Amino acid sequence: MWKQTVEQQVYLGVDLGAESGRVMAGIFDGQTVNLVEVHRFPNTPVRVAGSWRWDVLRLWYEIQCGLKKAGEQFGSRIVSVGVDTWGVDYVPFNKSDEMLGQPVCYRDHRHDGVMEAAWGRVSRKEIYQRTGLQFLVFNTLYQLIAFQRDQPELVELCDRILMMPDCLHWLLCGSRVVEYTNATTTQCVNVQTGDWDDDLIAKFGLPRKMFPKIVPPGTKLGALREEVAKNAGLSRIDVIAPPTHDTAAAVVGIPTSSTGQGNWAYISSGTWSLVGVETDRPYVNEQAVKYNVTHEGGVDGTYRLLKNVMGLWLVQQCKKQFDADGSDRSYADLVKLAGQAEAYRSLIDPNDGRFLSPENMVDAIQSFCRETKQPVPETSGQLIRCCLESLAFKYADVLKELESLTGFQVKTLHIVGGGSQNELLNQLTSNACGIAVEAGPTESTVLGNVLIQARTCGAIGSLGEIREVIRRSSSMKRFEPMVDPATVGAFERWRGLRK
After folding, report:
1. What would the pLDDT profile of 177-189 be if each residue is shown by its tens digit?
2. Which of 474, 475, 402, 405 is nearest to 433 (CA)?
3. Which among 285, 326, 368, 410 is least surrounded, fewest beta carbons within 10 Å?
4. Any catalytic annotation for residue 246?
5. 254-440+462-499: what CATH class?
6. 9-240: which CATH topology?
7. Residues in CB range of 78: below 8 A, 6 or more apart
8. CA separation for the pair 85, 271 (Å, rounded)
9. Distance separating alpha carbons of residues 185 and 274, to the nearest angstrom
10. Where in the chain do CATH 3.30.420.40 domains reside?
């Protein structure tokens, strides 16, 4: 174990999610890490002329506010800063470093139907064999095809694309590269080489110049821009690329004590739920195509073999509708009501396309139940219980697929991220999977972000040592499975609902 004790140093993690963003300070003394929230701000897509866009300039303003607050609070102890966000979305730039519009949100309908049309040019099998990526309608590849179809004049002007965190790193220090873990969410990176797949890009007629150099997580990108540093009251600290895809950072932040591959799995639980295992090689074969699992990049040559599940988006959007109807119940209130509701009354397939971006999530859930001849959930408790039980079964289903594909026998399931606070979902997941769940930490993404920065700066050693620090610094709660015939029967009924 890395034994060095250092003066408390501060690494700033900018973490952007689908609902909010934060500037967080990771205070590390060489043995434990403590997180302090410096600045929090909302992040929601904005409707612009019929499409959903991310307000990247507003995000940049808020990040600068956070840097200034961090400078006032921690001063010269701040060593570096790095950004993580969701995947797939990008910002196009011209040669003069001008952004060519506000980035399109992955939930926009511009790319509807593009994926299926793309298979007419390059087969689904070939795309998967090259990229190893799960087929999702909003993957960057299909967004770029839609961009070329709808705005060819902008594509002509486009000198490069930067993924969302890479755009923010450019704003911080002027770097013009793309970090590996987020690049792998594009479905344009070759799963074997870890670099852009030039043949695939050419087959879709996309300009190769748009795809900049890929760098590994932990890369020093440059010093903070002079004007940014001056405005924030900071020195020109290092800008370091953490694992910029939030799930990659969250997987770094899993406090596993296991040194053996294959006996633990994870769920990064938030708006999306990413259910996966960490592997040292890809599993690109017919079975993987059938299961539609993804191989996203991790740190130190690892792969995140996982599947995207719709996640707590279901609950968030139900709450949004409840609020619009005059309710003032908190998430905790809704989970309590769900715990009191009848078990396994109504179930849905969380990854059904109707739940991706519905006008009204309650209506979408009720429609699914009506079509599948189940009791229609009416109350808040029934609706939320339907979401949580269905998520638990989906997690169990994906876990069985991953075990079948890899030959792993998972004994412990780590649930990290904000969703790890949902104790009802944790217990339902343990029951459905039939294995122990360890829940926490909630801030695994930020922990992974700041501790990779610390490693780049020489304050910590290996990935295993990072996880040991996180385990020492965090509190987790364990859930043991309670399986009964009702759970088993409901799981079989749920399997029959999938398309």
Report:
1. 999 999 999 999 9
2. 402
3. 326
4. yes
5. alpha beta
6. Nucleotidyltransferase; domain 5 (3.30.420)
7. 10, 11, 12, 25, 70, 71, 234, 235, 237
8. 12
9. 13
10. 9-240, 254-440+462-499
